[in-house]
Amino acid sequence: MVAEVWGEWFVDDEREGKRPGPKPKGRPRDMLKVVLLDLYVAWTTDPELSIGIDLNLRKWVTGSRYNALHLSRATPRIIHRLAELGLIDLSTGSYSGPGARTNRSARIRAAEPLRQKFREARFGPMDIGHAADRECIILRDDQGQNLEYEDTEVTQRMRRDLRAYNDLLSRTFIDLPSIEEPYIEREINVGARAGDRIRVSFFPGAKFVRRVFSRGDWNCNGRFYGGWWQQIGSELRKHIHINGVPTVEVDFKALHVNILSLENGAELDGDPYDLTDGFLEGVDRKDQRGYLKSLVLTAINAANDRAAYQAFRDGYPAKDRAKGFRNTDLERLLNAFIERTPQLRGTLFNDQGIRLMNVDSRIAEGVLKAAVEQNLPVLCVHDSFIVDYRQVKPLKALMARESERVVGHPLPIANDWMGWDEVPEERREDYAEMRRLETKRGSLERRALFEAAVVRDS
């Protein structure tokens, strides 16, 4: 397919476009291949799905550690040429200023002539992988832009461990067997795109995990991002199967609040978010708990109380009653929380979140490394982990051990579903039957294609 597109529309451009100077690391034809494959993956997920692209020539640095394929400034020229030929639809985007909500990156998607070539292609999404040396340890600045950095023994170790984890994931079939198509649709509830519906693809290639540090500081953030399971809700995550087996998600309870409490010399007693009702007018105890949890976590991240209260309201969709809570309402609720947990009084409105994310990332790092050593696929959702339901006890042991290693005390954990290995032996057959899901034809086809690709690549 690449040869056809290149030969029909680009080969003359290459002859005319040769320039003096050093030979580029990547050939324009190879860059066209990358663009076409990205468009193909998007098209197989959703024919109307667009992908973001940066058309700023200065952003295409062939020597960057984040550019494993050595894509050069020729790539934006290829994009524009594809648009001129009518092979892609191009929206050039807009920029109003740093952090403006109206900022939009350029976006592209396959137009009908290219879609027809995709229909005729003799390969599928399972045949498309990622570069073996794709960077997985990311350092970003305050604006979320990638920063170059010099490797150290620590970054090399983190990269080695994470590549081993990604390698394990690449050999693991992770799916939602009750879903026919290789994607789910969900609505964006907050932010500039609130109300938009997006598709989250869970085909096997959508599970490359990166570790991202923030503010140009290796002590800020460090969490693991990228797996499609992080982009779906907790209810749907209950339907995830690993290698055809149901799973259980095990959570650290009130993770950041527990860490802060230990740092201030006290263990939490019970659920810190469960207060008596009546602090929010017209809100029952259960809903109040949810609002309080969101408020506390927002206050931990915020630099001051006003910013925390506004961020709390911004975090809810337009019709949620949280939009109408006044600052005095939220202050009263937080004061009740502090009365219950006085050791946390000095931890709110102090920009603690980014540091705590680094702490929990070090716990996750240890859990994932140990899981790889045990050949145990575990999916990370920041403060929780998903595992084959026959392996819940080993996962809990790892979580207890690694949290004690990092913060000096095993942190409390919980899971909604019991693990199969936690159920009395005489009840396991009934439990397995209860957890059984109807497997759609699409899931069976995805697994067959995945297993064929694994055999081919082994």
Description:
It is a single chain. By secondary structure, the protein is of the alpha+beta class. Among the domains are: 1-123, Orthogonal Bundle (Arc Repressor Mutant, subunit A); 273-340, no CATH class. Helix content is 41%, strand content 12%. The strands form four sheets. Strands 5, 10, 11, 12, 13 and 14 form a six-stranded antiparallel sheet that branches. Strands 1-3-2 form a three-stranded antiparallel sheet. Helix 8 crosses helix 9 (305-314). The longest helix is centred in the last third of the chain and has 21 residues, at 353-373. The chain is globular, with a radius of gyration of 24 Å. It starts with a helix and ends with a helix.
Short description:
This protein has 458 residues and is of the alpha+beta class. The protein has 14 helices and 14 strands. The strands form four sheets. Strands 5, 10, 11, 12, 13 and 14 form a six-stranded antiparallel beta sheet that branches.
Number of helices: 14
SS class: alpha+beta
The biggest sheet, with number of strands, parallel, antiparallel or mixed sense and barrel status, is: 6 strands, antiparallel
Which CATH architecture of the domain at 1-123 would you pick?
A: Orthogonal Bundle
| Unreliably modeled segments | none
CATH topology descriptor of the domain at 1-123:
Arc Repressor Mutant, subunit A
Give the CATH level 1 class of the domain at 1-123: Mainly Alpha
Q: Into which percent range does the helicity of residues fall?
A: 40-55%
* Strand tally: 14
Radius of gyration, CA atoms, in whole angstroms: 24 Å
Distance between the termini: 25 Å
Shape: globular
SSE pattern, N- to C-terminal: HHEHEEHEHEEEEEHEEHHHHHEEHEHH
Strand content: 5-15%
- Average pLDDT for all residues: 90
